[in-house]
Prior knowledge:
mainly alpha
Amino acid sequence: MAINRNYSCKDVNMLMASKTIAESFKTNISELSTTRTDWTEQYATDLILKIMMQSKPIWVSMPKRFA
């Protein structure tokens, strides 16, 4: 099955950007949770962990100086 991506950058760049956004989301969760009550600190933590788990194969294959 072919992988269809909706972005033109490398996967690692997309995952790093996603992690940065998720960390900012977690930092500002107290303000953002007023918009959606299911947005909690645990939700933000789980989101970051999910992104990190998706990027694990990439980090494992990268040279140590980049990991």
